[in-house]
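In practice, a research group might receive sequence data for several interacting partners and want a quick structural hypothesis before committing to experiments. The following worked case mirrors that situation: the sequences arrive first, and a predicted assembly follows.
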Amino acid sequence: MTRPLRVDAPPQGVYSGPVLDPKTLLEPLGLDALYVTRPENVRYLSGFPHPEDAQVLLTLEGAFLLTDPRYPEAEKESRIPAKVLRREEKEALLKELRGRVGFEAEHLPYAALERLRELSPVEWVPTQGVVERLRLKKTPEEVATIRQAQALAEEALEHALTLLRPGRTEREVALELEFFLRRRGAEGVAFPPIVASGPRGALPHAGASEKPLQAGELVTLDLGARLGGYASDMTRTFALGRVDSTLRRAFDATLAALERALEALGPGVSAKAVDALAREELKRWDLDRYFVHSLGHGVGLAVHEGPGLSPYSEDTLEPGMVVTVEPGVYLPGVGGVRIEELVLITPSGIELLSRFPRGWQEV
Ligand code: ZN
Ligand code: ZN
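A structural hypothesis for the assembly, expressed as tokens:
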């Protein structure tokens, strides 16, 4: 029923995660198979560039990609064997399953689970984070792709800087960022770019609005490119001319918190402790209560993935992890600052994947 998983050299352009022996994953979990539906996980295991329309079935004999006749070339686009199946063919295949079959409880909708139960009387076992755990530490190839995505995003930011002028709307700047990235070969943006100026800068996840930029404001740009399935993520805050000293102080405090966290970051370090250091620094400035989100997150096939850098995190940083460090100060009704770096944890410390200057800059 299945072809073996072993693939010696992944086909050009479809490499994402490492080649995996499903047995090493399934046996410790006491599973006979795992039905993978979360798109990032499907892409990680197969390299298939249309993971929203595909699943991966891991069995003790091997792994294969399931998709439908809209993707007749799936065999070429996947580095594991692909089956292009019509609906009834796929249902027939699922009916053949035996034993204990895991599904992704955080992703599979309840109605889809009900349908699977009707189709196949195996024991459907909820699992959480099985493939996500593998994704925590990146291979050198994955890091190279993220590095490339980040480099593209920095070119886009450089371009956007020339557009930061009073009168131009946030949305125009965001569209330029998107257009630039697409034109330069990115699959797209990793997330809709945030362009937040003036008082809107106090909304950490403000989308770009029709608000025109004005002199004397801070403007925060948070952007990522998507390349080969992988995301990048970086934030910079600029001043439009001279700004009020309250805003300048918020910037200096944020920068100090960022640098304190970066100094502490490295392998074996507790993610929670790094988050606490950034908060401690902001407390010295009496601004800690204006830092309302976690310090950072992993970046990979998803923009937000493990490990988390937050007060609630139980994660320890390990070489190969790619994380953001992004303290912010958000002063309601006044304005906000966020500075976000993208960092690779290395065996001896860290490497900054984001290279764009982070200091105070008036445009
Ligand atoms: Zn960001
Ligand atoms: Zn981020």
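Before designing any experiment, note the following. The chain has two domains: 22-135, 140-352. The chain is about 30% helix and 20% strand.
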